[in-house]
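Entry for the shared binder. Reason: the reviewer on the internal report wants the predicted structure included alongside the sequence.
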Amino acid sequence: MTEGLLALGATRFLADMHDAVAALLAPEVAARCALVDATPPDCATPFLDLSDAQFEQGFLTPALDLADHLRSLPAKRTSLLLLGSVDHLGEWHAVPAAALAGFAIGLTRSLVLERMQAGLVVNMIAFPRDRSCLAEGWLGQAAQLAAALLSAGGVNGHVLPFDGGANLRMTKARQR
């Protein structure tokens, strides 16, 4: 009996994505795939007010957990998809989230550079932390994109924002 789609992480978002993606993958494809949670925990504190403990909880611990998840993957899992955030683009009061998002992107691209000759495929879908801003039916659409990325080997080392195009708007800066 083959194992199904592997999920590494413990968030409700990962569980929902896992169920939706697993339903779309053939068993032989799912057996070589893994979804990896790279989403930041909530931490809405201005940088200058951020304590060391908050930075550790919001960035250092999740970054180390992500690296541990990736190191623990069985060799037969050759297609990985990280579920991350668009916080690397900047967000108010989100320094740990931005740091974790940047770390996940660098890790994705570096893994591909180091292991693509061995057949490893790694991509990331970057979501907004507040997914309530996404259009109705977004989970099914995201699952279809995830299944396509996990099934095909032609796209490798990419980060695809899944935010309805919000990353293209210049609305984050406030007038001073």
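Summary line for the report: The longest helix spans residues 95-115.
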